[in-house]
Amino acid sequence: MSFRKFSSDADVIAFARQHSDLFTADEALKVEEIGDGNINFVYRVSGASASLIIKQALPYVRIIGEGWPLSQDRVRIEAEALQLEAKYCPDLVPRVYSYDAEQCAIVMEDIGAFANLRVVMVQRQKLPLLAEHLGRFLADTLFYTSDLYLDTYEKKSLVKGFINPDLCKISEELFFWDPYCDHERNSINELIRADAEQLWQDTALKLEVARLKAKFLNQAEALLHGDLHSGSVFANESGTKIIDPEFAYVGPAGFDIGSIIGNYLLNVAGQANQAGDHAERSDYQQWLLAGICTLWNTFEQGFRQHMQTETRDPSLQLEEYADWYLCELLQDSLGYAGTEIIRRTIGLAHVMDLESIEDAERRADSERLALKLGQVLIKHRATINSIDQVIDMLRQQLHCR
Amino acid sequence: MSFRKFSSDADVIAFARQHSDLFTADEALKVEEIGDGNINFVYRVSGASASLIIKQALPYVRIIGEGWPLSQDRVRIEAEALQLEAKYCPDLVPRVYSYDAEQCAIVMEDIGAFANLRVVMVQRQKLPLLAEHLGRFLADTLFYTSDLYLDTYEKKSLVKGFINPDLCKISEELFFWDPYCDHERNSINELIRADAEQLWQDTALKLEVARLKAKFLNQAEALLHGDLHSGSVFANESGTKIIDPEFAYVGPAGFDIGSIIGNYLLNVAGQANQAGDHAERSDYQQWLLAGICTLWNTFEQGFRQHMQTETRDPSLQLEEYADWYLCELLQDSLGYAGTEIIRRTIGLAHVMDLESIEDAERRADSERLALKLGQVLIKHRATINSIDQVIDMLRQQLHCR
């Protein structure tokens, strides 16, 4: 049987029964298409006792159609990345029940008990364990898939298995090119067009973005999630689930860390002009900054401990190397955070953290703040040695407005 | 027919006839085993009118035997690397007439008219075009196999095609670990053992070597030759041929540049105590330093011109990026030159440039100079912005002895 798109609820239900043992034979099941964004088809199959998710990848982008073909290999990559992540932090990713290569479909745990982090942040909910969970996810996945832990054969084979040009190309363009020129794919609030035009003239900024892009293209350091924005995180008071690693490839570790930090900061910029009480919004901004600090500190402590006790390559075991490495990684992460912030503000794909500000003038104010934060992070990252310095720098940007 | 080692001259001759049209049917052919070092079997097949080379890779290291297995995939990698290099600098590599995957054998041009560069240098011959040829080889092969020229799909496919863990692992260990500890594989002149022990205590040096190793492991920047020492270069007054790219993989561009610069400097160190007239040896040292300068300048001009006119990715077209990139690449190259010098002095595989100094005391003096040059290059590379600064620094090291 060759690939075919699920054509009916009955089709999806039969597949669910075939690929899991969650349901009893006589249990009535229903199907709901829930979507995961714009690219794939995602279904929830539920009965009285249980539910699961089926994600199917078509050979093109769902919302565009056959005019934008996209390799179905992305679903293999997603399944394998989820399974690898589960080896190191099983509590932080949805369980994969089954992966069917022919139907390009993953059958996985339903994480319906968790809320999308973007919504959580727009609603200013404080989740006590979120930052620690994200820091641990990053420490574990980025260490155990790097040359610090893997031997030459394992590492090279990981690089080979996660060659992912279709999805890398999307990031290469949307992060590192479009927002730095007057590209037709960009979407720019007319009120900040002058700011965007000024940014396009900033050679110092563009040089730094070129350096970050070169690392994104070249540096096969660790297996990345590759798309770690707030929309890929589901969380509640007690748990966190990181989903959708179809952009996974072996790239620079700072890209994942920076992507999620950038999303914290997009919400910080949004809160400056969101609806609701000013004090409450300021307080949430401080909660987000403290979260960035906790996220990095959890990451750094976890990663450093792994380096101290589990680095196999003796030439990479020096404590001085760990110090140097973690400082460089912080700087990289800040740079990538800056590119995420800028591309979400004037590039193709915007975020609710800013878009939900209805008044165009107020939205422009937050967008200007976002651009400013992005630029400062990219251009001044080389002067930063600690996360406390980062938080000071960010607070200054918020205060001096 | 599955793989089998050539078992007789007749076997080799039949293979040569089958895989080339160089010989006439009634031409008498003879076979000579010439060796290419320690790893493979290499034969010259010659008749009255022509000759060719056949290189066969066995599933183990030739001089060790079955106790050191080595993937035969290396011969595919060598054939494909030679063919790719020939696309960009056909005059600088031996022509591949045929590659037989099953017999793990390459049939290629006989470069018997050229002399091995290591011998050339030990004999203090000045070849007028050598440095320019090496610079051009590096500029062309490193540019056209990088993200500056290739699109995402081409580049990722190149990375995948040249995954080469067996041979990478050899370099990872011999360059970046053994020489920095008391490793049983090391071979150390007893007279400089104290110098080696001092080097093993130098944490600042070991940190820099760890950084260079991390780039060697991670940075998939361009297709490298991977083993560009003097023994891989054949040259005469008018031409240069670069052979044996079985270590090819997509790695940091500075590794190839540094390897060959390191080999120039190993000869500089050797000339301090080689037999023969002192003035002649000093003069040759100056010729070698001038050669390093020409090599880098040819490389830099060629590479910069490629960047200016052929970089496809618009975000990497900034002139400021080219300046930054070439400065960083010079620093990387100096670091790798340092690791090549050190590993050839106290590591497993030594070079004739030093080994042919018969007197142990004099050899020790040259070895100490080599270690000093290696350490200075590795530790001070970050302060260097131009090749003239490098040459000044090297001259100072030679004078202050």
Defining traits:
2 domains, homodimer, alpha+beta, 401 residues, 3-stranded antiparallel β-sheet, Aminoglycoside 3'-phosphotransferase, Chain: A, domain 2, Phosphorylase Kinase, domain 1, 5-stranded antiparallel β-sheet
Write up this protein.
Chains A, B: Keywords: ATP-binding, Kinase, Nucleotide-binding, Transferase. The structure is a homodimer of 401-residue chains. Chain A is of the alpha+beta class. The first copy, chain A, folds into two domains: 9-109, Phosphorylase Kinase, domain 1 (2-Layer Sandwich); 115-399, Aminoglycoside phosphotransferase (APH), C-terminal lobe (Aminoglycoside 3'-phosphotransferase, Chain: A, domain 2), CATH 3.90.1200. Chain A is built from 14 helices and twelve strands. Chain A has helices at 9-18, 73-88, 117-122, 130-144, 152-161, 165-176, 193-200, 203-218, 253-271, 278-310, 319-346, 352-355, 360-380, 387-399, and strands at residues 30-33, 41-46, 51-56, 60-61, 65-69, 96-100, 105-109, 115-116, 222-223, 233-235, 240-242, 250-251. Chain A has a five-stranded antiparallel β-sheet with strand order 1-2-3-7-6, sandwiched between helices. The first copy, chain A, starts with 8 loop residues before the first helix and ends with a helix. At the A-B interface, helix 5, helix 6, helix 8 and helix 11 of A face helix 5, helix 6, helix 8 and helix 11 of B.
How do you describe this structure in short?
The structure is a homodimer of 401-residue chains. By secondary structure, chain A is of the alpha+beta class.
